Amino acid sequence: MQIAVSGGKGGTGKSTVAVNLAIALSERYNLALADLDVEAPNDHLLLGVELENEESVELFMPSFDYQKCTRCRKCAEACEEHAIITMRDGTPFLMPNLCSGCAACEIVCPVPGAILAGKKLMGHTYLTETPYGFPLVTGRLKEGEERAMPVVVHARKRAVELGKELLIVDTAAGTSNTVSKALEDSELIVAVTEPTPLGLHDGELILKLAGLMGIPTVVVVNRSDLGDVEKVRTLAERYGAEVIAEIPYSESIIRSYVEGKPIVLTSHPEAALFREIAARVGELLGGGE
Would you list the DSSP string of 178-205? Predict the structure, then answer.
């Protein structure tokens, strides 16, 4: 099974919910947590662990053997990203930042060896054992790179291959293609939002995406005392979602965030809120052993 913790707006506390939910659910499921917010992964910080077992994520990157190249221009014609341009005589040149690594140029090239298969480092994935009884898989995009999808795909694949009973996916903010990729195969989305104008606007976007993907969704309202929660409830009902928790602004939660000590393991009253979220999610998943 897979569930995803997502939310249209950044900074709503999505990672805080994901980490504490994972810890609470680990008491009844053999699970893994995957941080697929590859441009700004921070679940390991909230869990207080150092990333381990690094694996590189590399992308196909063509280069040209100009002694073999016949200047036929087929590589440029096949490149949907327009990453290959040709001179007046047909000599090809690559613009690396535009290349998506699809290898179409190599496939259509009529001369064996005229296009050489190089590699470009896009980022890394990590597999870290946490002190809470479950592994954390993390994707991290290389600084300066713009294409996050390859790292998301590799990190998700690494998490799935662990073969756990339950996979909890922490997605990036927004509704980009990387978010929809992270949401794939989820049986439930936990959408984290806040009762602010931006929270409502971006929360509606993730609810629309969930509807398009046919994934049931529940809503957690973080910093619920900042605005009108009833507006969030009305929005959720419009899209067939249920608000399952309201988390007020809490200095205890912020302190636990800074110290890398998950709030769900403390004696603070707020811990009960996260356990209630986990219990409700467990019910929606059909229980657990």
Answer: HHHHHHTT-SEEEEEE-SSHHHHHHHHH
